[in-house]
Automatic annotation (TrEMBL):
Family of this protein: Belongs to the MoaD family.
Record keyword Nucleotide-binding present: yes
Protein's name in the database: Molybdopterin synthase sulfur carrier subunit
Taxonomic source organism: Paenactinomyces guangxiensis
GO MF entry, a single one: nucleotide binding
Annotated metabolic or biological route of this protein: Cofactor biosynthesis; molybdopterin biosynthesis
InterPro entries: Beta-grasp_dom_sf, MOCS2A, Mopterin_synth/thiamin_S_b, ThiS/MoaD-like
Purpose: Involved in sulfur transfer in the conversion of molybdopterin precursor Z to molybdopterin.
Biological processes annotated in GO: Mo-molybdopterin cofactor biosynthetic process
Self-association and partners: Heterotetramer of 2 MoaD subunits and 2 MoaE subunits. Forms a stable heterotetrameric complex of 2 MoaD and 2 MoeB during adenylation of MoaD by MoeB. During catalysis MoaD shuttles between the two heterotetrameric complexes.
GO cellular component: molybdopterin adenylyltransferase complex
A Pfam family annotated for this UniProt entry: ThiS
């Protein structure tokens, strides 16, 4: 059975891609590998996805952070304000 990693998308990214995605994953991935997998599935949003921070289990992640099935993953776009 193929495993999936659930990814939550916030702000305008959530409006473009949907608030929740399920990304196929045969093995555990790093946060950077997961980002590349999502970009491959949604290439038209590459620039949006590249600028996002990634959180794993409610903590900001680096590209090397391991992502396991069952983890809570969030893609958080940069915010600007005045």
């Amino acid at each position: 059975m193929e495993s999936k990693i659930k990814v939550l998308c916030f702000a305008d990214l959530g409006e473009k891609l949907g608030r929740s995605l399920e990304i196929p994953a045969e093995t555990d991935l790093t946060a950077a590998e997961l980002r590349q997998r999502v970009i491959k599935l949604y290439p038209q949003f590459q620039s949006d996805l590249q600028s996002c921070l990634i959180a794993v289990n409610q903590e900001y992640a680096t590209g090397e952070t391991m992502v396991n099935t069952g983890d809570e993953i969030a893609f958080i776009p940069p915010v600007s304000g005045g």
